[in-house]
Amino acid sequence: MRINKYLAAAGVASRRECDNLIADGKVKINGKTAGLGVEVGESDSVTVNGLPVALKKNEYYILNKPKGYICSVSDDKGRKTVLDLMPNNVGRIYPVGRLDYDSEGLLVLTTDGELAQHLTHPSNAVPKTYLVKIEGTLTENDLNPIRSGIEIDGYLTKKCKAHIVETNKSYTKVHITLTEGKNREIRKMFAAIGKNVSLLKRIKIGELNLRGLDRGEYRKLTKQEIAYLMSI
C-alpha cells in the first residue's frame, strides 16, 4: 500500500494532507524518512512526528437518514450532518454517495474507501431503489419516458426500472431503481414529466434494505452484508 493511502486509512489526515507530511519529512518507515509514493507493508513500522501509526479496522454502518441532514462530514452553513446521528468514537467515517437535504432513507457510512469507490463508481452500476411519492395521479404509461431515459440538464438519463405501488386522487407512490446517481436526478426526472416529488426515500442498495431501522437509527453492517456490497 502506498504510504499516503496507508496514513489516510490509519486516520492521520486526508491523502493530500498526508502527502504534505511526507514532503516535509515528518513520516518515517522503519526509522528512515519516507518519500512520496513509497510502499509500506503490514510488518513495517510507521511514525508521524515520532509517534507510531497503525492501520485501524474499517468501520461499516447503515443509517436510516431523516430529512433535514446533509450527507457531509461538516457544513459551513451550520446545518446538521449525518455524522451528528452517529456515535462520537467512529473515527474518520464518511457517507457513501449522497441523499440531499430533503431526502431520506438508506445510507452507508464507512472508513473503507475501497467499498465507497465500488458503490459509487458509475462503471459498477450498483442498483439503488427509491420510494418516490408524487403529488396527484400518475399512470404506468406516464413512467415510460423515465424508464427509457429522459433528457435533463443537457444529458440523457440511463434506462431504469419504475412501477407504481400505490395511487389515489391526491398522490401516487412509485418504486424506481437506478444505476446512476447524479445530483437531484430523480426529482429532475419527474419534473421533466410535469410531476412534483413530495417524498424521496432510498429503500435499498442492491438487496440491502432498512428493515428494523427507524428514522435516525443506525447499526453496524454484518460481515455477510459487507461482502455482499463488495460483490454487487
Description:
This protein is α+β, with helices and mostly antiparallel strands and 232 residues long. It has 3 domains: 3-53, Roll (Structural Genomics Hypothetical 15.5 Kd Protein In mrcA-pckA Intergenic Region, Chain A), CATH 3.10.290; 60-122 and 212-231, Alpha-Beta Plaits, CATH 3.30.70.580; 127-205, 2-Layer Sandwich (Alpha-Beta Plaits), CATH 3.30.70. It is 20% helix and 29% strand. It has 6 helices and 15 strands. The chain has helices spanning 3-9, 15-23, 113-120, 144-148, 185-192, 223-231, and strands spanning 27-29, 32-33, 46-48, 51-53, 60-65, 94-95, 104-110, 128-135, 151-152, 155-156, 161-167, 171-178, 197-205, 208-209, 218-220. The strands form 3 sheets. Strands 5, 6, 7, 8, 11, 12, 13, 14 and 15 form a 9-stranded mixed sheet that branches. A 4-stranded antiparallel sheet has the order 2-1-3-4. The chain has a two-stranded antiparallel ribbon with strand order 9-10. The mean pLDDT is 93.
Number of domains: 3
The H-level CATH homologous superfamily of the largest domain, spelled out, is: Pseudouridine synthase I, catalytic domain, N-terminal subdomain
How much strand? 25-35%
Mean pLDDT: 93
Total of helices:
6
According to CATH, what is the class of the largest domain? Alpha Beta
Any idea what the shape is? elongated
Termini separation: 24 Å
- The H-and-E topology, N to C, reads as HHEEEEEEEHEHEEEEHEEEH
Enumerate the spans where pLDDT stays under 50 for 5 or more consecutive residues: none
